[in-house]
């Protein structure tokens, strides 16, 4: 048959003829042969008939012949009929040897990308069947197999899958399902950097990769690999610097520069914060600027450098900010005063002042950088509190206002900001955890201004709350969602900005409950709610609705009855919106229609992340499960979308007691101990 012995002389003769010279009889003969080729077995009979008229026979006498080079434009798809070929990649050498029956050269055709490898004949007298690009596109492109696997040294390194045809999808027919980190990066550099703007329906592989690589490829490794792609030497071309070689090497450099540009666009200062990345960018910049072939790229990298030095300067100026957790646990002073948006970002080396208690409720006050690990805090607190135990015998614990205890892992960090609303940090011998009880003050309210909110206009309150929450939301980096989901200790990174934002949610929620059962002014609360929704501050909106649904409030039937029915109806509508059934369908539907700026309901986003994380393995058979990364990135993109336009609100006029309102809303008094709340509720309405 065609496959095993190579086509006989007759067949070869036919396959060398141009299609229009092949007779019906000859086509039939070719068709019969095509039926036996495994590489075509997934194709229908009618497609094989079409192929019979255009498939071409090609033979090469000499081993060592280069069929095509990595980086070349893809012109044909090949099936190896007799002999063998090496697949060679710059910087890696021969990664695979293909044998009789194997096919190659599809990748460049389906992705409209340059050749991903050089193909070198390994034996004399190789026989190939060839389908040229125009025919491939016409006949095969839309019926290609669903998955495409690339191997190196006998192991899968990249698995691509057909993208279900979507309207408006432009460039990519295949997306990455899984792969090794390096191969995915290589594929990305090869195929995804030609277009700067990707449409909403396009394959977001590049963006997904940029948002999530820290999960499977730490920055240090990424930078190393980028460096070797940048300094790609032409060892497989025998060191001969032909003009094509020069072109190819330039292309490699351009891709790395474009990658850097897109990287900074995607995760901003997270790139600059990493010393290895910052150093790498500077190094590349010097090289790019000295290369005449890279003038356009010099402009790009210059922009990146400017951005970086501006960021680092600003960072230098705000070094070592000091945050406080005063006696009552509330990060007061955290955001008081005239803080600018950049200054509200909590950084790993900022100091934080906090208390650590022990079982007898004595405490010590500590000051540490936020990145300090639980172990260090534990040892230091034990020393100050004179607990004479070795570190292994001790635990750092949060005791919540309801008495619940959580033990911190030794390598955990950003502990003080991770405490719940009225939680306290304790250090205790591991065998005495049962002795830890909440401090009496934890049953009361967190520290905050007391104010008669009846004197305040709800419009003013909602306005200032929204501005304030926006700043907190703005400070949260998308990466913090990953750290939070996978565990910050895995990354050795803090999640303080996210912690504070989530804490704010609880603060508002319990402030609402606390205020209502202290004053029972429900009218005011409902109209505040309406304003938050109008400002698209969904985080606060949810918090308020949830506060009003708290059992301590919902049982106040007399109060509810006194409300105008208009308000009650409104509240019922709002409650429907936060209904969690069918995976928060009502909320998702209405949020889907909103345009930025939006302050999203963060707990739901985190739930989505956790759900994706727990339901999907990060690696499958040694390859990164990129489908999971895609899910993660989608949620991170949602956060990005919410703040893709900056918040500008018309201030309510006239400006009433602005500074007073600002300090009031920046730190609400809130009781988060449900037992206390229930008791108070029963006091105002006994039955
Ligand atoms: P293409 O990029 O068109 O040209 C080189 C071909 O080598 C590529 O398509 C694949 O079909 C084939 N190939 C086989 N193994 C690999 C690999 N590990 N990496 C890249 N290409 C490979």
TrEMBL record:
Cellular compartments per GO CC: plasma membrane
Residue ranges annotated for the Cyclic nucleotide-binding domain, each copy included: 39-140
Residues annotated as domain N-terminal Ras-GEF: 172-309
UniProt-listed GO biological process terms: Ras protein signal transduction
GO molecular-function terms, A-Z: guanyl-nucleotide exchange factor activity
Keywords assigned: Guanine-nucleotide releasing factor
Ras-GEF domain span: 457-687
Limits of the Ras-associating domain: 350-432
Similarity remark: Belongs to the RAPGEF2 family.
Protein name as catalogued: CLUMA_CG016279, isoform A
Organism (species): Clunio marinus
Location of this fragment in the whole protein: 335 to 1021 of 1021
């Amino acid at each position: 048959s065609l496959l095993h012995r190579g086509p006989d002389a007759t067949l070869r003769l036919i396959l060398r003829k141009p299609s229009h010279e092949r007779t019906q009889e000859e086509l039939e003969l070719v068709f019969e042969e095509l039926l036996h080729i495994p590489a075509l077995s997934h194709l229908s009979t009618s497609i094989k008939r079409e192929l019979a008229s255009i498939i071409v026979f090609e033979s090469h006498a000499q081993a060592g012949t280069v069929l095509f080079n990595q980086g070349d434009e893809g012109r044909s798809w090949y099936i190896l009929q007799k002999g063998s070929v090496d697949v060679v990649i710059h910087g890696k050498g021969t990664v695979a040897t293909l044998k009789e029956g194997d096919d190659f050269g599809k990748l460049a055709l389906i992705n409209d990308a340059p050749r991903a490898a050089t193909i070198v004949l390994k034996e004399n007298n190789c026989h190939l069947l060839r389908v040229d690009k125009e025919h491939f596109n016409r006949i095969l492109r839309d019926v290609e197999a669903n998955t495409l696997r690339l191997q190196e040294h006998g192991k899968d390194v990249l698995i691509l899958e057909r993208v279900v045809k979507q309207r408006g999808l432009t460039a990519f027919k295949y997306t990455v399902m899984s792969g090794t980190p390096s191969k995915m990066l290589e594929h990305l550099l090869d195929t995804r950097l030609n277009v700067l703007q990707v449409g909403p329906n396009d394959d977001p592989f590049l963006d997904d990769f940029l948002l999530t690589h820290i999960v499977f490829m730490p920055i240090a490794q990424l930078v190393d690999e980028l460096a070797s792609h940048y300094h790609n030497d032409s060892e497989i071309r025998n060191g001969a610097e032909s003009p094509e070689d020069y072109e190819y090497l330039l292309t490699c450099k351009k891709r790395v520069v474009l990658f850097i540009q897109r990287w900074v666009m995607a995760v901003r200062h997270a790139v600059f914060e990493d010393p290895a990345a910052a150093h790498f960018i500077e190094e590349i910049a010097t090289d790019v600027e000295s290369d005449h072939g890279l003038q356009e790229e010099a402009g790009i990298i210059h922009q990146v450098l400017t951005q970086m030095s501006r960021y680092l300067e600003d960072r230098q100026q705000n070094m070592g900010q000091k945050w406080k957790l005063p006696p009552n646990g509330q990060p007061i002073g955290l955001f008081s005063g005239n803080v600018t948006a950049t200054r509200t970002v909590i950084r790993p080396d900022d100091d934080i002042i906090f208390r650590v208690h022990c079982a007898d409720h004595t405490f010590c006050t500590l000051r540490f950088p936020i990145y300090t690990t639980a172990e260090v805090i534990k040892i230091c607190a034990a020393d100050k509190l004179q607990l004479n135990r070795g570190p292994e015998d001790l635990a750092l614990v949060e005791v919540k206002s309801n008495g619940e205890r959580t033990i911190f892992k030794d390598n955990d960090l950003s502990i003080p900001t991770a405490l719940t609303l009225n939680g306290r940090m304790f250090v205790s011998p591991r065998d005495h955890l049962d002795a830890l009880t909440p401090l009496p003050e934890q049953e009361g309210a967190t520290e905050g201004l007391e104010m008669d909110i009846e004197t305040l206009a709800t419009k003013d309150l909602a306005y200032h709350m929204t501005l304030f929450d926006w700043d907190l939301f703005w400070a949260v980096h998308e990466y913090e969602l990953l750290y939070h989901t996978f565990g910050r200790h895995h990354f050795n990174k803090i999640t303080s900005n996210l912690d504070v934002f989530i804490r704010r949610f609880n603060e508002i929620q319990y402030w609402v409950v606390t205020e209502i059962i202290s004053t029972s002014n429900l009218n005011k609360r409902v109209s505040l709610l309406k304003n938050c929704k109008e400002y698209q501050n969904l985080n606060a909106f949810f918090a308020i609705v949830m506060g009003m649904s708290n059992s301590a409030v919902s049982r106040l039937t007399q109060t509810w009855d006194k409300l105008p029915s208009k308000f009650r109806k409104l509240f019922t509508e709002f409650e429907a919106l936060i209904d969690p059934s069918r995976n928060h369908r009502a909320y998702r539907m209405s949020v889907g229609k909103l345009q930025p700026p939006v302050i999203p309901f963060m707990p739901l986003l985190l739930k989505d992340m956790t759900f994706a994380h727990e339901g999907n393995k990060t690696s499958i058979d040694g390859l990164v499960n990129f489908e999971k990364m895609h899910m993660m990135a989608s949620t991170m993109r949602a956060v990005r979308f919410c703040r893709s336009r900056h918040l500008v609100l018309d201030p309510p006029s006239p400006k009433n007691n602005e500074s007073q309102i600002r300090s009031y809303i920046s730190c609400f008094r809130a009781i988060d101990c449900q037992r206390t709340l229930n008791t108070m509720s029963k006091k105002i309405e006994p039955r």
